[in-house]
């Protein structure tokens, strides 16, 4: 296997620079139509026209310079070796995964139910609105999980149970245990936290069953935000979840997941992150999600409400007083070099992040205390380091070169450390020793020690029909699996052709029938 170079990436086929053309959807009829991406007074806009429904314009990234910087990191994946659809002709209408898809599954969503114990106005998965209950039984869910683990060349490493509200699924704990037994390295639950706030015992049982991460909906520190976005004041619930997991032995970690709505909680992005830092014995990260517009809205409302990834980066810089700057964020595929180097050194394919550079951004912070944080980008020169690691991966061959390459990779880390910028209280040697774990086959203990001093901050902007870019869909790594064994990219499942509706109707029962059997609760 050595000598073949990187196995899961190739140069991106998307042209760099602006303007450029892509394919999108008409927000009215969902027909595939051409679209142009261009600079418009420092913002990247998408313009498209449907013969039946006219012209549409939307801001894709609100900072052209940041957009152009991000696309330097574009790489394509090579897809999966066993696609369910082998003769797809047109993305996004032949999902499965199909032979046109360029990335393997990095994180899979498994909807356990569309029932919920909330009535969120901004939710796209709700039994009451749908008129039916989607709740696959235990055996069906296990089959769905097996489909993910059978994906080649990389069995899906991470699964997130979602809904609706997954914690009200009748065999919630059994499903977590099943996922663990099937070998998922990362098991998450996307939750509003209500059930976990009620019971330390449930938190302990979930951790014991195998949950690694509680993906906690956390929209801010003002009570009225929850009333407006979620239909009730949930701030005390969120705080209780943190308190309860703090009491759990060998507890799961918590990641805050704020849905950011312009004019509602965009002033909360740094307060949310600061609160995470104050609780980082339990909270290990924040993953912001600018809202996607799943229904039809006016052009005026679209312009007023659109909030993009550069907006988030700018607001955090302003609100934090420059503790985190726009320049500290990098697009997701930046780290593809690490996976490629691993494969060159050890031969076994690992998750390789080959999403579109517009999909998400992230950074890591070294944390001394909540008011003293230093992004890793301040003391590691990221661009030359990762470029050189990628080149090293391409050259690594055979066992002799393998040993040499590990030494060379460590020297590259050392070379691109900016020693005078290393935070007080953190030695260069200790930092390098921790990162050296990436280059060994026994990484877990070293990285675990190091990660407790780090806070992950990321953002993922899922698409809607107004900013839909089919090139992004082809490169998506966050997928859903369905009861009939298909794997569907996130933005194809929830936007555009909306596979969610099709799947749920096929495998659901009318809500009236469900209520006759189970009662009114949580529908």
Please render the helix and strand layout as text.
Elements: E1 9-11, E2 20-25, E3 32-40, E4 43-50, E5 54-61, H1 64-70, E6 75-77, E7 107-111, H2 127-130, E8 132-134, H3 138-149, E9 158-162, H4 172-181, E10 186-191, H5 194-198, H6 200-209, E11 213-217, H7 223-230, H8 235-246, E12 253-257, E13 259-260, H9 269-278, E14 283-290, H10 299-305, H11 309-319, E15 330-331, H12 336-346, E16 360-369, E17 372-375, H13 382-395, H14 398-415, H15 428-435, H16 444-451, E18 454-460, H17 470-474, E19 478-481, E20 487-489, H18 490-494, H19 499-506, E21 508-510, H20 511-518
Parallel strand pairs: 7-9, 7-19, 9-10, 10-11, 11-12, 12-14, 13-14, 14-18
Antiparallel strand pairs: 1-6, 2-3, 3-4, 4-5, 8-21, 15-16, 16-17, 16-18, 19-20
List keywords for this structure.
523 residues, alpha/beta, 13-stranded mixed sheet, four-stranded antiparallel sheet, 21 strands, 35% helix, disordered N terminus
Gyration radius over CA = 22 Å
Shape: globular
Major pleated sheet:
13 strands, mixed
Distance from N terminus to C terminus (CA atoms, Å) equals 52 Å
Instruction: Name the helicity range.
Output: 25-40%
Sheet-strand content, in percent, reads 15-25%
Low-confidence stretches: 1-5
Structural class: alpha/beta
Average per-residue pLDDT, rounded, comes to 90
Count of strand segments: 21
| Total DSSP helices | 20
